[in-house]
Inverse folding.
């Protein structure tokens, strides 16, 4: 760890990188949280049913081509 610490101490302005990383991380989750609470319920319902509908459609298509 000594090598990394000594190397990072030589970089000018290195203390900004953790702050920027934290701001990006925090901003992402704030935007995601805002989107979750403002998303239309119809859209959420439709998207939540997609995997189930896809399996049903795949089975129907598979039966159609094998018969």
């Amino acid at each position: 760890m000594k090598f990394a610490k000594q190397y990072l101490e030589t970089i000018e302005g290195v203390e900004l990188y953790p702050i920027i990383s934290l701001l990006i991380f925090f901003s992402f989750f704030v935007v995601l949280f805002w989107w979750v609470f403002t998303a239309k319920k119809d859209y959420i319902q439709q998207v939540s049913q997609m995997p189930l509908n896809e399996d049903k459609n795949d089975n129907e298509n598979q039966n159609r081509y094998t018969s």
